[in-house]
Amino acid sequence: MINSKQQYREYVRQDQLALGRRHDAHPRLFGDEIWKFEILLRKVEYDLNCRHGVIGKLVGKWHKMRFHRLSVRLAFTIPPNVFGPGLSIPHYGTIVVHGNVRAGKNCRLQEGVTIGATNGSHEAAVIGDNCYFGSGVKVIGAVRIADDVAVGANAVVTRDIVEPGTTWAGIPARKISGQDSHSNLCGALFE
Fold it and tell me: What does the radius of gyration of the chain's CA atoms come to, in whole angstroms?
């Protein structure tokens, strides 16, 4: 969770690395919508956690409005204060994340991912560091996912994944390999 201007800068820098934008200083004017979305997500988080006073609230409302418009355009439903630094979204496409999800650093979400609660419960997933979710993955309920886990395309996770550094796939998801998620994440994150 962002609690200072310095943390805001660190989150944005880590997101930039996760997206493979190591040498680009700023998003391009046209294109780079996903990077712009992630920067706005971090601004909204900073506004919610750190800004006070009338001017701060006005700036916060402005960022929140822009964030909402871009979220609708890209079909992303990702609430603030859910993901740690290093969030990577490589493609446009529907992504839905419950507001009570807590995810660590360096999480990569492909298109079609849903991470939600179930049966009206407000309890949602707790996800470790360096996790990868392939296209169409569904994570349902208050499950825990260990560090360095890769979940393959169209898998449905309904139970805890407690073994770090493994790959899971299928419906319901089951372990298919002892390989970690690092090959699916940007290598700059581990330098």
Answer: 16
Each as own residue / partner, the long-range contacts of residues 164-168 (CB below 8 Å, 24 or more positions apart, any chain) are 164/128
CB 173 within 8 A of CB 160: no
Residue with tokens 């001017």: 55
Kindly report the pTM of this predicted structure. Answer: 0.92
Q: Is the pLDDT of residue 121 over 90?
A: no
* Element holding 136 (H helix, E strand): none
The counts of H helices and E strands in the chain are 3, 13
In terms of phi and psi (left: phi > 0; alpha: psi -120 to 50; beta: otherwise), the region of 119 is: left
Contact between 68 and 80 (Cβ < 8 Å)? no
Residue-level length of the chain: 191
Q: How does pLDDT run across 74-107, given as a tens digit for each residue?
A: 999 999 999 999 999 999 999 999 999 999 999 9
Q: Provide φ and ψ at 38, rounded to 5°.
A: -65, -40
For residue 81, what pLDDT is reported? 96
Helix axes 5-18, 33-50, angle to 10 degrees: 160
Burial string for 32-53 (b: 16+ CB within 10 Å, else e) reads bebbbbbbbbbbbbbbeeeeee
3-state SS assignment for residue 48: helix
